[in-house]
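Per your request, structure below.
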């Protein structure tokens, strides 16, 4: 990513009832956005929006709009934005934005998620633009190193006590341009149980199976010849369970690419 990326603390940014971080003054825009004044901070929402370069996703009534912006520094950011939704959806979006900001900040610099750029008011956040293509577009034996890398990323997350919780989403794993790495997107559903805590000992073993089963989905979709007998059996168990799940819109398990 070209240009300097603006980064600031998600815990303090744009809190409606909190104070700015020590040594930083807060300013508020007429449009409801806010920023922390001073060097290295994300520009005000009005500035970021004025430099919008296009939409990646125009979300439906309950989904965020996702758009890109080119900042004066030369950096490109992706903005996840609930601010144009109804009041009720904005309140739910505020929760999602806060959760995602927390995980992007927690993982900043780890090479697992996009770098966090900052909050743009209560209902939007900005993250670095990552140049790449969805992993699902790369099936076949050439996917094997990517699957190995994905397993390394999941092991790293699990060592931190983190479950992504939405890796079945086809758009949520991005292969970097050049094919040298992966980035995981959409952290609003993630969960963290700090290692060593009672919560971790009691619950993490069950929770991490969500990501582990998603990993098997990706193996089955991209390079099924590498599945072991135990992994195939696990996939079949998941498919049987998924057919019974009342919120499953497709009524079946995952679909392999090309099938």
């Amino acid at each position: 990513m070209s240009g300097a990326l603006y980064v600031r603390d998600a815990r303090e940014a744009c809190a409606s009832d909190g104070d700015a971080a020590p040594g930083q003054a807060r300013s508020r825009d007429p449009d409801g956005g806010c920023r922390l004044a001073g060097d290295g901070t994300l520009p005000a929402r009005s500035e970021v929006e004025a430099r919008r370069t296009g939409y990646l996703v125009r979300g439906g009534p309950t989904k965020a709009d996702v758009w890109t912006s080119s900042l004066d520094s030369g950096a490109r950011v992706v903005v996840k934005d609930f601010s144009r939704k109804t009041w009720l959806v904005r309140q739910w979006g505020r929760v999602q934005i806060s959760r995602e900001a927390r995980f992007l900040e927690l993982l900043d610099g780890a090479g697992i998620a996009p770098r966090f750029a900052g909050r743009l008011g209560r209902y939007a956040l900005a993250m670095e633009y990552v140049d790449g293509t969805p992993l699902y577009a790369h099936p076949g034996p050439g996917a094997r190193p990517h699957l190995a890398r994905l397993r390394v990323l999941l092991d790293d997350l699990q060592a931190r006590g983190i479950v992504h919780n939405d890796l079945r989403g086809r758009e949520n794993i991005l292969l970097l341009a050049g094919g040298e790495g992966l980035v995981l997107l959409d952290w609003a559903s993630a969960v963290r149980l700090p290692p060593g805590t009672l919560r971790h000992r009691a619950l993490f073993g069950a929770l991490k199976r969500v990501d582990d089963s998603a990993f098997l989905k990706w193996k089955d979709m991209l390079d099924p010849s590498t599945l072991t007998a135990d992994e195939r059996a696990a996939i079949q168990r998941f498919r049987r369970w998924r057919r019974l799940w009342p919120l499953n819109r497709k009524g079946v398990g995952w679909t392999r690419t090309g099938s």
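The helical segments are 45-50, 87-106, 144-159, 198-222, 229-244.

Regards,
D.
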